[in-house]
Amino acid sequence: MSSDMEHPDLAGLLTGDLDSAEAVAAGAHLETCEQCRAELVEVAVGHALLRRSARTLGDPGRPQDLPSLPPPPQAPRRPGRRRALAMAAAAAVVGVLVGGAVTAVVTQREEPPSASPSPAPAPVAVAPLEAYGEVDPAVGGEVELYAAEPGHTQVRIRTGDLSPAGGTRFYYAWLLDPATNKMLPLGQVGPEGGSFDVADSILASYSAVDISLEDDDGDPGHSVTSVLRGDL
Questions:
Q1: What is the pLDDT of residue 58?
Q2: Can you give the pLDDT at residue 204?
Q3: Residue 18 CB neighbours (<10 A)
Q4: Are 128 and 230 a contacting pair, CB within 8 Å?
Q5: Strand runs (DSSP E) across the chain, as ranges?
Q6: Which of 34, 97, 100, 135 is at a distance of 20 to 30 A from 219, taking alpha carbons?
Q7: Helices 20-32, 34-57: crossing angle, 10 deg rounding
């Protein structure tokens, strides 16, 4: 397009804002100007993006005003004008996306809380329990540590592989310091294990877990019959 010809209003042509004479003149100009035809494609794509963004992110029940397409200058064309138009259209799309995102956040907060259960917390550490002493080597278990209330750790012990204690016997869990053989009783474990809350200051003094087989004889001490043991 030569520099002495008036630049057609491409945005107005696309949105139907030109009168009949202006639209016909713009169409005739586009037939002979390859550069203006390429620019019209960019403006059309930007307009399509705006409408699509408003339809996707806006309120379906209420019309949403679209940002105006960038008006072309009436001065002669400059080499960087096509890039400026594309940047302006992209900026308008970003504006619609940001506005839609804010609307989506507000809508999400106004929705009733989901009935689906919260995901189970992940353990902060997991350690295997292995057969100890004369127990079948195939028998095993597991210790899981979970963050509990401030300053405490939940110690979950799984002992599903152990056979029933039988009679007046029962299984008991202990914290163990292998270097000194010092033990701290945690509590009785059932067929599947048990769970205990331990202060972090106490847990820091022990580095292993021991499961013992006890007799109901009134003696609170360790029976010296360990069946499972594992490092924390």
A1: 54
A2: 93
A3: 19
A4: yes
A5: 125-131, 140-147, 152-158, 169-177, 182-189, 193-199, 208-215, 226-231
A6: 135
A7: 120
How confident is the model at residue 41, as a pLDDT? 80
Q: What is the mean pLDDT of each run of 10 residues along the chain (232 residues)?
A: 60 77 80 83 74 59 50 46 48 44 37 63 91 90 92 93 89 95 93 92 94 91 92 88
Q: How does DSSP classify residue 135?
A: S
Residue 201, token pair as written in the block: 């200051």
Residue with tokens 């494609």: 41
| Residue 159 token pair | 């002992």
Question: What is the rounded distance in angstroms from the CA atom of residue 30 to the CA atom of residue 24?
Answer: 10
Question: Burial, 56: exposed, middle or buried (Cβ in 10 Å; 0-12, 13-18, 19+)?
Answer: exposed
Q: Looking up tokens 């087989």, which residue turns up?
A: 213
